[in-house]
Amino acid sequence: MGAAIVRLNRIAPTLLAAAAFLLQPLTAVAQQQKPYEPQVGQAGKDVIWVPTPDEVVDRMLRMAQVTKDDLVYDLGAGNGKIAIAAAKLGARAVGIEYNPDMAKHAQGNVVAAGVADKARILQGDIFATDFSQATVVTMYLLPGLNMKLRPTLLSMKPGTRVVSHSFTMEDWEPDEISSMDGRRAYFWVVPANVNGGWALETGSEKNELVFEQRFQKIEGAIGLGHTQGGLRDARLHGFAISFAWVDNNGVLRNFTGRVTGGRMEGSWKGDNGTEGRWTATKK
Ligand SMILES: C[S@@+](CC[C@H](N)C(=O)[O-])C[C@H]1O[C@@H](n2cnc3c(N)ncnc32)[C@H](O)[C@@H]1O
After folding, report:
1. Is the pLDDT of residue 12 over 70?
2. CB 186 within 8 A of CB 177
3. How many angstroms is it from 77 CA to the middle of ligand 1?
4. 265 CA to middle of ligand 1, Å?
5. Would you state the pLDDT for residue 79?
6. Is residue 77 lining ligand 1, measured as CB closer than 6 Å?
7. Predicted model pTM
8. Residues 70-93, buried b or exposed e (16+ Cβ, 10 A)?
9. Does 211 have pLDDT greater than 50?
10. Closest residue by Cα to residue 218 from 228, 229, 233, 208
11. Residue nearest ligand 1's atom 6 by CA
């Protein structure tokens, strides 16, 4: 009996060490398999992660009138909720997320939501990733980051819609502000560039048009011989333009048209029943 106890005392530490050695990889595997759980407020490259509440996401996508024809980019995708919500509206959606663990987690959420055929999460930096093909851009960043992105956004195709949760773009005034539960969402449409002089042709008539533009706000004038007639109700909405002027016969002519690079074209109607087509070419 005494000899048996002595033998057990000798081999017990060896057995325990062997058991611990065998269990070690299992513990490591269990730790590896623990799903990544993002923490609200965790650091990000340029801004922390805080998810946009569902009702704000919903309004942001409604403001932008997202449909199946859109390609939505969420800049700083977090857990992917905006990309997923856009895909559920039928749009194609891409979320750009810098944090690799978060990007993987968000892609997992995309798959779990059953929208992997429409949405995907790219791991990358929003300042180094091309999103110029987007028809809608969504953001929940910071005022300084919005301003850093502003030149890129303004160089996008006219008509591209931009929505930002909480933060503005300073003197580029929004086209819409929506509020819910103390939060705000801001909406802009990227305007065409019409600033400067244009040669207007209305049938056989030729006049010079000039626009002064500040983002989507325009005003202008038309050359009527020695007179500079002011433009009334000048509006720019993406690539859609409209304005009116009173000609030398006192007829108010209303113009509507579309801007494509250095050319505009459309139709006009006078308040005396006259009407026709017009074109204008950038000088
Ligand atoms: C405030 S959260 C918004 C998340 C999501 N868009 C939403 O509204 O629910 C910002 C996200 O941007 C990510 N981020 C920060 N800097 C970034 C950068 N330079 N490029 C890509 N993602 C970035 C953060 O990791 C974080 O997940």
Report:
1. no
2. yes
3. 5
4. 41
5. 98
6. yes
7. 0.89
8. bbbbbbbbbbbbbbbbbbbbebbb
9. yes
10. 233
11. 77
